[in-house]
Write a structure and sequence with these properties.
Structural class: mainly beta
Strand order of the largest sheet: 2-7-8-9-10-11-12-13-14-16
Order of helices and strands: HEEEEEEEEEEEEEEEE
Low-confidence stretches: 10-18
Distance between the termini: 90 Å
Largest sheet: 10 strands, antiparallel, barrel
Radius of gyration: 26 Å
Helix content: under 10%
Strand content: over 45%
């Protein structure tokens, strides 16, 4: 009996010491690419069978979004992630000692550089009395890179004599390039000293991701007014990076993947003809996923045209 208990104890100890917990921590993420926006359509005397072509140009105003992303590892009292370097028979390994990194990270580790200019063209087909279908494509350019995007969705609209409202839902495909640093920590389960081994990863790439959007738009349509107004409220997520970790470990968590925006868009429009109008406004975007963001509100002015067929 004592022999059996001894063997069980040995096997249990071997099992526990072979177990380990692993975690993934974002260190830095830099992104280049457009900050996509939901489509904007003015509702004014829509008729079944109508087709609208809506070209649009927006300027980023050179606003770089910087901030602190979730998921960074703890740091030491100097604000740095401290590890020890060990030469193990010619192999360099990194270890985090207990008590070294105990402070939350409070600096900036996120940067998003938008292209200077984005041009898009959206198409709307009024398929029913209160329903339209939407398709679109976009092109963004900044520095030495260019980015393509696409959109598809549906709109539900309602009109009265002087006011119209619209709800849009759909999907956007946006492209961005990324440069990300992250670490994977492995802590063995042990009754003795627990040294955490650290693996550093750096990945660069360019990818296209799909995300959903939703928007509510209200606009005036008073026949006696020479200039009309509109307001759009929108929410959206935009995926920036999806790390395919090239190492065998059990944790399926990934570093920060996407950002979230609440966008308020006020503006004016006036009709050139019954089938043509000019629309001007400004996108005011508030990023809600980052723990800290600067600027607090992204300002992107735009000009678009609507041509009916």
């Amino acid at each position: 009996m004592k022999t059996i208990l001894f063997l069980i104890s040995i096997l249990l100890a071997m099992l526990l010491t072979s177990c380990a917990t692993q975690s993934v921590y974002l260190q830095e993420l830099s992104v280049d690419g457009p900050q996509s926006k939901p489509p904007l359509f003015i509702t004014n005397d829509n008729k079944q069978g109508d087709v609208r072509i809506v070209p649009k140009i927006s300027v980023s105003n050179s606003q770089t979004l910087e901030g602190r992303a979730q998921g960074h590892s703890n740091v030491n009292t100097s604000g740095r992630y401290r590890v020890d370097t060990v030469n193990d028979n010619g192999t360099i390994r990194y270890f985090e000692r207990n008590g070294d990194n105990t402070k939350p990270f409070e600096q900036r580790n996120f940067r998003w550089e938008p292209p200077k200019m984005t041009a898009s063209v959206n198409f709307e087909y009024v398929a029913a009395r209160t329903l339209s279908l939407v398709l679109g494509a976009s092109y963004s350019s900044g520095g030495s890179q260019s980015f393509l995007g696409a959109i598809t969705g549906i709109g539900f609209f309602f009109e009265s004599n002087n006011l119209a409202a619209r709800i849009d839902i759909g999907a956007q495909w946006s492209t961005s390039s990324y440069d990300v640093n992250y670490v994977v920590t492995t802590t063995p389960f042990s009754f003795g000293s627990r040294e955490t081994e650290v693996a550093f990863f750096h990945e660069k790439g360019k990818a296209t991701f799909a995300n959903a959007y939703g928007a509510f738009t209200v606009n005036t349509k008073a026949p006696a007014w020479p200039v009309q107004g509109f307001l759009q409220l929108a929410i959206k997520r935009q995926t920036l990076v999806n790390i395919d970790k090239r190492t065998a470990f059990s944790d399926n968590a990934v570093v920060l993947q996407s950002t979230s925006f609440f966008i308020v868009t006020p503006g004016l429009y006036f009709d050139i003809s019954p089938q043509t109008r000019i629309v001007a406004g400004v996108h005011l975007g508030d990023e809600t996923e980052l723990l800290e963001a600067d600027p607090g509100v992204l300002v992107v002015p735009f000009l678009q045209f609507e041509f009916g067929m």
